[in-house]
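User: Before I run my own analysis I want an independent prediction to cross-check against. Here's the chain; please return only the structure tokens and, at the end, one sentence I can use as a sanity check.
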Amino acid sequence: MDEDDIYGAEIYGEAVPQYERPAPSAAEADVPAYEPLYGVKQEAAASASDKEELEELRQQVADSAAREADLQAARAAEKHLLDEAATLRARDVTLQQALAERNIDNVELRRQLAAARQAADPHIAQARQLLLDPAVAAEFERLKGEADAAAREARGLREELQAAHFSQESKVGRLLMAKCRALQEENEELGREAAEGRVAGLERQLALARGAVADMRRAYLELEDAAQQLDAEAEELQLQVFMLKHQIRFLEEHEAASRSGGGGGGGGGDFRERPRPGPPPRFGKRMEPYPGFGGPNPSQEGFHNHHTPPGMGGGGGMTVGGGGGGGLGDGDRKRGVPPRDRSGYGGGGKRPR
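Assistant: Structure tokens:
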């Protein structure tokens, strides 16, 4: 089938007549034969590049128009500034002229003032001489006092006259009534302010009292928690002291029993070595009796019968020699019991405390 025959002769029975293509040029030699629309693509690419160039030209025209508008605005602003500068120059000239005129007037006034001072100097000297005369000064003082007394007397008489002719229709009466109303309103305003101030003060005191109560409540709760913790710690310490006391008592009884049952003056018992006891039991733990010795004392019910040393109840003896006698036994020497008291206690003797 021909390459340019799109539908082919096999489908329609015969090939579509085609025109003869000219020989490809050197630039078209590299184009594949299976691209019949290559020229259309080249035209589309050329039109796209033309569109891009057109857009660039439009953008340049818009930029030039914007620059032209900015330039015109700058020129208008420059013209306006030049006009303002000319106006300010004219105003400056006017102000300078006014200043020069004021300076001239000032110089003239100073000259006139100096002339007036020169003309008034003799009168001032004469007045000073008159005031320095004691007789003239005394006369001036007397006249001044009489004038003040007359003014006070006239003011008092005027007030008495106004009080004698007081009425609500008169001018003075209206003034007095207006003044009384103003004073009454002022007193009412002061009373309201005082009441509001008292209420506000009481509210502030109440708020402070509430804050203090809240602080005291928090402090009380904290102290209560601390007291509970201290009570718990005290109970624990008391329990530890109680346990330590019973352990000490147990050790003392055990040591006394060891001394009382030790060898030295024993009677006729078979020579047996007792078993070595372990450490003292903890509080609340039941102590098991040693094999071959008496059980715990049933009279001590409150402490689980664990404080009775082994061998002190009814049962087999725990002495090496069998009878009571002084000195330490062989087991005591092995355990390292200190020989504090070698007097010993008999079999029927009283237990040491």
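Sanity check: Residues 54-114 form one domain.
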